[in-house]
Write a structure and sequence with these properties.
Length: 294
């Protein structure tokens, strides 16, 4: 991937447009979903206030040439700022959320709801840059892909927290779904696939988490993300099945899975949209799937 000045703007902010598309298709937004009057007006009040944004910053790196190179790539590309700016343009947030790239001493990333802050460690980007590389062989592409899935995963946690989104199931799974779907909506399929491959790397190199862990196993997370990529365009990504990256038995469910998750995130974010803009490819996809009875 080359540097982009407008990461998510390929289709006039796919997020806003696709959420608008969902409301258009279903003929009802959350405001019209039959809620009672008090709750309806409370929801309208809560969702109409825009008092915050996501803010990206890059903290200095000490004594590590490779991490300095990673920092330079991330900072100079503008990719992450553009992604965050498009979320800011699309969504009303009740408060600020900071996103800090840090030299942490370990390959880690997390969202802290107490201080509304996402931390992404340069070491995590280094880990996946080195492990996965890139199709075009450039370190720049590898480094940008290495952090994107994790950034959106943590943004998913942040949105669930600050918007108090009514998710069900494991929050970690919802954050993975959000990351995969946002990247697919914004035509960053390679970054979504990189996210899947990162879990494959973790599965091979790290000890498996215990059964009580809040995350799914690394390989479950790998297959889930691969499934969303395949489901977003089964013709384009048929090689995931023929190349045995995704078993046919699971692949058979992926178009419906992707459609359901897309619709769910459409509806979850709809009340917080700043504006409704033109329909996009996802709308066409949803329409196509609906017609096929998915
Ligand atoms: Zn998480």
């Amino acid at each position: 991937m080359t540097a982009r000045s407008a990461f998510l703007r390929i289709k006039q902010s796919a997020i806003a447009a696709t959420v608008a598309a969902s409301a258009f298709l279903t003929g009802c937004g959350v405001m019209e979903a039959g809620l009672d009057g008090d709750r309806n007006s409370l929801l309208a009040l809560n969702s109409s206030e825009d008092r915050g944004d996501f803010h990206v910053s890059y903290r200095p790196v000490e004594d590590d040439a490779y991490l300095k190179a990673i920092k330079h790539i991330l900072e100079s590309s503008g990719t992450y700022e553009a992604a965050v700016q498009d979320l800011n343009d699309a969504l009303r947030l009740p408060e600020d959320v900071n996103i800090e790239f840090l030299q942490c001493g370990s390959a880690d990333a997390y969202y802290d709801p107490n201080i509304k802050s996402i931390t992404l460690c340069y070491e995590l980007v280094q880990r996946y840059t080195e492990a996965l590389g890139s199709d075009d062989g450039s370190m720049e592409t590898a480094a940008l892909h290495a952090g994107l899935f994790t950034l959106f995963h943590e943004l998913g946690h942040a949105l669930i927290d600050v918007l108090e989104l009514p998710i069900t199931g494991r929050e970690e799974d919802a954050a993975d779904e959000f990351a995969a779907i946002m990247l697919l909506w914004s035509e960053q399929e390679e970054a979504a696939l990189s996210g899947a491959q990162q879990f494959s790397v973790d599965a091979a190199e790290w000890e498996e988490a215990p059964y009580w862990d809040e995350h799914g196993t690394d390989m479950q997370r790998y297959y889930n993300i691969a499934c969303y990529v395949y489901g977003s365009d089964s013709d384009r990504w048929a090689n995931l099945v023929t190349g045995e990256s995704l078993p046919q038995e699971r692949a058979d469910l992926c178009e419906e899975d992707y459609w359901r998750k897309s619709n769910s995130w459409n509806k979850l974010l709809n009340p917080y949209l700043k504006q409704q803009i033109e329909l996009t490819a996802l709308n066409e996809q949803i329409t196509r799937n609906s017609q096929r009875g998915l």
